[in-house]
Design a protein that fits this description.
Elements lengths: L1 H5 L2 H11 L6 E6 L4 E4 L3 H4 L6 E3 L1 H8 L2 H15 L5 E9 L5 E13 L2 E11 L16 H8 L10 E7 L2 H8 L1 H17 L5 E7 L2 E6 L5 H21 L8 E7 L8 H17 L5 E3 L2 H22 L5 E10 L4 E13 L3 E3 L1 H11 L2 H22 L4 E6 L1 H6 L2 H11 L7 E6 L8 H13 L2 E7 L6 H7 L3 E4 L1 H9 L1 H16 L3 E5 L4 H8 L5 E3 L7 E2 H12 L1
Parallel strand pairs: 10-11, 13-15, 15-16, 16-17, 17-18, 18-19, 19-20
Antiparallel strand pairs: 1-2, 1-6, 2-3, 4-5, 5-6, 7-9, 7-10, 8-9, 12-13, 12-21, 13-14
Helix pairs in contact: 7-8, 8-9, 11-12, 13-15, 15-16, 18-19
The structure holds ligand C2E and magnesium ion (2 copies).
The site of one magnesium ion has 4 residues, from loops.
Length: about 550
């Protein structure tokens, strides 16, 4: 420090310039007596500085010090300038050229001459400093380098691909073997990936268990797929070398540079993440190539989800219950209706329940919407009963409602609240794999049947048809799905099958409702198997409350 004291301001500035090429930090000197500030010229690229040297510190600092931090900084500098403080050590924010705050730690030493404060000499470090290496994976390339590589502001789009690799179920490795083991494994995976790369390919760790390989020198999608396969093989070797302590797989998402309009970090991250998540959703341990069509339908689904959520929060505005009549074909008597949900969005228009019900189920939104639908339908049923006293209302229930809420209680209270008898209500549940051996389901089923609510097994004849359901669940009604009905109407073999099945179902004292009858001809043919109920366009399409009253209730009175 003594030697420094002897140097002139110009010489000190020269020292700063000398060190500039060897440092990422910013050396500075503040000449207190002349009110002059000098900083390494590299600070000019990073901060909104007027120049790398200037007089009138108080005014000029205002331009690039974050508003809130200006006064505390000036106070500290004042104490130094007055000799009350010998050291400056402050964490605060400077602004970058875009006006965004950047956290810095500014440290400095006061140099006095003949007891008069003369210079403040020091260094500025960025605290949120861009990380250049990743100690966990052992990779020199971290996401900050990737940002630098991609966000070049250049219009030129190189040919090549990006391969995003994610370790499948890495959480389980951490849970079972500990975080330290997980970190060690990440390092090994990174080395395995690196070992498969050529000199012009690079790998970056982007998030905890995900890596991005860049090939911007002409690699094709096929090259990307074979690279993924090579890496997977290398990982298998790694697992064996590790004595199978952790057995895991990797998934991959490939994005060709031809599928992007600009090489921006944010868009590469978004689209490569989509490709990887597709591979994970399709079963993991595989790789998927980004496809604009898939992405569009994914975006559409997101828009629809947003729209459904908005509607729910807006007092279910956009949802409406439609009612489709169910008739007893022998007597032509109106037995009741099935309540079917509709959703209309201002931009998307009318959306089919086949599209939106699965989204409501996946997001859990079926719980509030199901609650709303239950009350709407039961309230409508009560009003229909004012004119047709033995009217029944069929309500569709999702297995998610069975699993996630006390739906039997909800149904029974709603029945009482709307002044109905439990026997007026039929709950329709779709046959599905998720219903199998579910203890909640049997409890729910028991509670409702015990109180007299009828239960219908919906969509019978599709997918999971299993006669054990009939025995295990003991429903009151079997609803034959339209797809089965159509096949039976076109094909003799299917017709015989349907006929035999109805005999069997009847012998079990269960009722049958055939869905999807559209014409008189179809009705005549289906009547030969003597179904208890018929539902289909022949009798009527689902329609809103008012129309239903007009078309069916008033006719039945
Ligand atoms: P689902 O419960 O099997 O309902 C019968 C479907 O068949 C309805 O389709 C109905 O419009 C249609 N359908 C009835 N007769 C005919 C016919 O003669 N020809 C043709 N082509 N179609 C006919 P929708 O309304 O589009 O509903 C589709 C599915 O969405 C329903 O199948 C049900 O699984 C589900 N869904 C509808 N509303 C609700 C609801 O409120 N809650 C739940 N959880 N699911 C619902
Ligand atoms: Mg149904
Ligand atoms: Mg059905």
């Amino acid at each position: 420090m003594n030697m420094m004291k002897k140097l002139s301001m110009d010489q000190l500035c020269e020292v700063i310039d000398l060190f500039r090429p060897c440092m990422d930090d910013y050396l500075y000197i503040f000449d207190i007596t002349k009110d002059y500030f000098y900083i390494s010229s590299n600070a000019m690229d990073r901060f909104a500085l007027p120049a790398n040297c200037f007089y009138d510190v108080t005014t000029n600092f205002k331009q690039f010090v974050y508003g809130e931090d200006y006064d505390p900084l000036m106070e500290d500098l004042q104490q130094i300038a007055s000799g009350h403080k010998l050291e400056h050590n402050l964490v605060y924010r400077w602004l970058n050229p875009d006006g965004k705050p950047v956290w810095i730690n500014c440290r400095g030493q006061l140099i006095t001459r003949e007891d008069t404060p003369c210079y403040l000499i020091g260094c500025i470090n960025e605290i949120g400093r861009i990380q250049k290496a990743d100690n966990v994976s052992g990779l020199l390339m971290s996401s900050s380098n990737l940002i630098k590589l991609l966000d070049t502001d250049s219009d030129w789009l190189p040919e090549g691909y990006l391969l995003r690799i994610g370790i499948d179920d890495f959480k389980e490795v951490n849970e079972h073997l500990g975080i330290e083991y997980g970190d060690m494994l990440l390092g090994k995976v990174a080395s395995a990936i690196q070992a498969c790369l050529s000199d012009d390919q690079m790998v970056f760790r982007i998030v905890s268990d995900e890596f991005l390989v860049t090939d911007l020198t002409g690699g094709t999608i096929e090259d990307g797929i074979s690279l993924y396969k090579r890496i997977r093989q290398k990982i298998d070797e790694l697992i064996a070398d590790n004595h199978y302590e952790a057995v895991f797989t990797i998934s991959g998402g490939i994005l060709s540079t031809q599928d992007i309009t600009e090489l921006k970090y944010s868009s590469v991250m978004k689209l490569s993440e989509f490709a990887l998540s597709l591979a994970k959703r399709r079963g993991k341990n595989m790789c998927c190539v980004y496809n604009a069509e898939d992405y569009q339908s994914f975006r559409k689904r997101l828009d629809l989800t947003r729209s459904l959520r908005r509607a729910i929060n807006n007092n279910f505005d956009g949802f409406e219950m439609y009612y489709q009549p169910i008739f007893e074909p022998k007597s032509n008597h109106l037995h009741g209706a099935e309540a079917l949900m509709r959703f209309k969005d201002e931009e998307l228009g009318m959306v089919s329940p086949v599209e939106f019900i699965p989204i409501l189920e996946e997001t859990g939104l079926i719980i509030p919407v199901g609650h709303w639908a239950l009350h709407q339908s039961l309230s409508a049923c009560k009003k229909f009963q004012d004119m047709v006293p033995d009217f029944h209302m069929n309500i569709n229930l999702s297995y998610v409602q069975v699993q996630k809420c006390d739906i039997s209680h909800e149904i029974l209270s709603a029945v009482i609240e709307h002044g109905l008898r439990p026997t007026d209500v039929v709950i329709e549940l779709t046959e599905s794999g998720s219903l199998e051996s579910n203890p909640r389901l049997s409890k729910f089923w028991e509670k409702l049947t015990h109180r007299g609510v009828h239960l219908a097994l919906d969509d019978f004849g599709t997918g999971y048809s299993n006669f054990h359901y009939l025995y295990d669940l003991k429903p009151d009604i079997i609803k034959i799905d339209r797809s089965f009905t159509s096949k039976a109407l076109q094909n003799e073999y299917e017709y015989n099958l349907l006929s035999l099945m109805s005999d069997m179902v009847r012998s079990m004292q269960l009722q049958i409702c055939v869905e999807g009858i559209e014409t008189q001809e179809e009705l005549t043919r289906i009547q030969q198997i003597s179904p208890t109920y018929i539902q289909g366009y022949f009798y009527g399409r689902p329609c809103p409350y008012g129309e239903f009253v007009q078309k069916y209730i008033q006719q039945a009175v």
